[in-house]
Amino acid sequence: MSVPETSYLVALGFGANLGDAAGALRRAVALLRERGLDFIAISSLYATKPWGVEDQPDFVNACALARTSLAPRELLALTQGAERALGRTPGRRWGPRAIDIDILFYEGLDWRDDFLVLPHPEMTRRAFVLHPLAEIAPDMIVEGVPIHQLSQKFGSDEVKKMTPF
């Protein structure tokens, strides 16, 4: 499936819990910006408890909205390349990481292949995605519900707003 050469709104999720996690998120956005993503909104940084594997340091998370003309698989290659450039190495699923960049949403597109599913299938079950995304895109509809409503099912004890990006 190919996407026409035009600009699409995408939502990205960022997380890290090794080293200077907040700095890693900032470097990831800067690198993606250098490589052509047009960021239009970036959430605050959030401190969050680990999800999936709990025996590890807390995470720093953020979400961003950007515009791109890249097709979904091209965007995936871009984000994975940025992860590698910033020190991400293969590790335990949901384990500690220097940087993680997830494509959460791609405007007007439901996508499923062996490498990528959009919208991200876990995003509505993750407070560390919903709270920062609700900050910058409260009215974005996922699974027929605005993000701000989905985020309300999680209390503030699961995510703590830290600082502006």
From TrEMBL:
GO terms for molecular function: 2-amino-4-hydroxy-6-hydroxymethyldihydropteridine diphosphokinase activity; ATP binding; kinase activity. InterPro entries: Hppk, Hppk_sf. This is 2-amino-4-hydroxy-6-hydroxymethyldihydropteridine pyrophosphokinase. Pathway: Cofactor biosynthesis; tetrahydrofolate biosynthesis; 2-amino-4-hydroxy-6-hydroxymethyl-7,8-dihydropteridine diphosphate from 7,8-dihydroneopterin triphosphate: step 4/4. It comes from Rhodoblastus acidophilus (Rhodopseudomonas acidophila). Catalyzes the transfer of pyrophosphate from adenosine triphosphate (ATP) to 6-hydroxymethyl-7,8-dihydropterin, an enzymatic step in folate biosynthesis pathway. Keywords: ATP-binding, Folate biosynthesis, Kinase, Nucleotide-binding, Transferase. Pfam families: HPPK.
